[in-house]
Amino acid sequence: MDNIRRGNKQLIKELNRAIVINTILNYGPVSRTRISEIADLGLSTVSNIVADLIKKELIYETGEEESSGGRRAILLEFNCNDRFVLGIKIGLDGIIVGLVNMKSKVLDQHFIPSPIKSNEKIVLEVLIKAIRDLINKNHIKAERIVGCGIGVSGLVNQKEGILVFSKILGWKKIRFKEFLEKEFNFPIFVDKDVNVLTLAEKRFGVGKKINNFICITIGKGVGAGIVIKGDIYHGSYGGAGDFGHIIIDKDGPLCYCGKRG
């Protein structure tokens, strides 16, 4: 029972920390009092988390809030160029590896052709080299990378970080998370490319203030990302939003899936 209690306390601490970080990212520069109000957390809890984040140089104090009387509150801002994120888009047209700061600003990106119809070993070797090239080009230490997100065309097991199958790419069972986390000292997150696009629309685009919507992409294939109650809906097996081949003209052009029309 004590282990469960300790585990629950640690989880709550991590959740509260994530809430404070997201609040500063979205509303900064912002005061401790305002963070407490927005996040619905106690001021002492916020102050303790903020002190730790300042010590780790993730945030910094920047100026004072305008006051209508009384002591002016000190504003907090995220140190957006102290930590970085990698974003990777994998599709038929190629692979784009992007370096992004904590304010979601793209600082640099690298394009390479997709190794179509290649095995897992070749795919991962190509990706590892592309990541290393981008990090080295920008003279960034690997420990400054807080995570890497991968959006890939195909059926994805998001929890395991595995591309199960991609007809377009000709790939099968690519274990991105397992092997890339062994190679690099930061977490790897993998999802369908349309879900990643939908998440961006939810955070930055037209879906920012909408809790239920569908984002549809039309290209070599047709896909959809589904948001329900503010979260991406993956379905039981990660295939939510996959239309499959819908025949419009039985004598139409040949599709990459082998069907016509």
Automatic annotation (TrEMBL):
SUPFAM superfamilies: Actin-like ATPase domain (SSF53067), Winged helix' DNA-binding domain (SSF46785). Gene3D superfamilies: 3.30.420.40, Winged helix-like DNA-binding domain superfamily/Winged helix DNA-binding domain. InterPro entries: ATPase_NBD, ROK, ROK_cs, WH-like_DNA-bd_sf, WH_DNA-bd_sf. Coiled coil: none annotated. Belongs to the ROK (NagC/XylR) family. This is HTH marR-type domain-containing protein. It comes from marine sediment metagenome.
